[in-house]
Design goal:
Layout lengths: L2 H12 L4 H8 L3 H15 L4 E4 L2 E5 L1 H31 L2 E7 H7 L3 H8 L4 E7 L1 H9 L5 E5 L9 E7 L3 E6 L9 E2 L9 E4 L4 H12 L7 E4 L2 H6 L7 E5 L11 E6 L7 E6 L6 H12 L5 H5 L14
Parallel strand pairs: 3-4, 3-5, 8-12, 9-10, 9-11
Antiparallel strand pairs: 1-2, 5-13, 6-13, 7-11, 7-12
């Protein structure tokens, strides 16, 4: 039984031995699946499935053992394929950059396309997701470079870390929300309203939950999402408050929503990170240095007319 046939077997079992359903899932004919089972059982002298009225009716004890081995082997095979792809990408000069979705959208949506145009020979593979997902990939050596939200929880002896942007969490709400008229919010102001914020795959979730715990705030209702734009939209026409990074303000319609800062602000700081290594490829080092030069202006700097964003004009080598 080869890898493809093992996949057939797994799909048949996962489809409750319904050959018609399994065939549709893997886009082959039902007769091909039936023949695979018949030929395998005949050639190996083993019965994988019980039959009832000509139909498959559950697995035999031997079939369950074969199924268990097949699932383990296919899982290992897929793991091996992923490793091969990652190692091939490294050897071919691909730089794997991981960053949380909100950072990609708010800070790097203009920078990276410009980089692709200016430096077409440098291949950057972007991996985005929740901050904790990116952190796990990074510490398991699946990424060359990562942008992480504070706290990074990295060993300074093993990782190089640079603070590239300071920001803070703020409250987004409908323009007619009862809190919208306040100049600053206390964290205790939130306890009478339903709250939305990022889900548990994001560093922001643990940061905000810890802040509420420290302030002894008992939230009325807490909703989670991985989508910042949904969380902002969810506040329209009701009393929901979304706690998100201040940078989201630039991405929304300010005529409909209100952004209020907290008097005791919770930092949303972004760190550029990579492992300490004796040898670093020229392309990776160039990308790291370019991102390190890239400074996202704070709201105060923007007000003062400061534009500290670097242009991508340094040639490789």
């Amino acid at each position: 039984m080869d890898i493809i046939q093992m996949s057939y077997l797994i799909n048949i079992v996962d489809s409750s031995c319904n050959l018609s359903l399994a065939a549709k899932k893997i886009h082959i004919s039902q007769s091909a699946l039936s023949q695979f089972i018949t030929h395998f059982e005949a050639s190996e002298g083993i019965q994988l499935f019980n039959r009832k009225n000509g139909r498959l009716d559950g697995m035999t004890e031997a079939g369950r053992m074969v199924y268990r081995f097949a699932t383990e082997i296919v899982a290992k095979y897929e793991e091996m394929q992923n490793v091969i792809q990652k190692e091939a990408a490294k050897q071919q000069g691909t730089i794997r950059l991981g960053l949380p979705s909100i950072i990609l959208r708010a800070y790097f949506s203009h920078l990276l396309p410009k980089f692709y145009v200016n430096y077409p020979t440098i291949n950057i593979e972007i991996l985005e997701g929740g901050g904790l997902e990116i952190w796990k990939k990074f510490v398991h050596n699946e990424l060359n470079i990562a942008l992480l939200v504070e706290p990074t929880n990295l060993d300074s002896k093993k990782y190089e870390q640079h603070l590239i942007h300071k920001d803070e969490y703020v409250a987004f709400m409908d323009k007619d929300h009862p809190l919208a008229s306040k100049e600053y919010l206390e964290w205790s102001d939130l306890q009478d309203y339903p709250i939305t914020t990022f889900n548990q795959n994001f560093t922001s979730y643990s940061n905000i939950m810890q802040k509420l715990k420290d302030e002894n705030i008992d939230i009325q209702r807490l909703h989670h999402s991985s989508s910042w734009d949904y969380m902002v939209a969810a506040t329209a026409g009701n009393d929901i408050v979304s706690v998100l990074p201040n940078s989201v303000e630039e991405l929304i319609d300010e005529s409909q929503f209100r952004v209020v800062h907290f008097r005791d602000a919770l930092p949303f700081n972004i760190w550029l990170c990579r492992p300490h290594r004796k040898r670093v490829g020229e392309a990776e080092n160039f990308i790291y240095e370019e991102i390190l030069k890239f400074h996202v202006p704070t709201s105060e700097e923007q007000t003062g007319g400061c534009n500290c964003m670097s242009s991508l004009n340094v040639p490789v080598g």
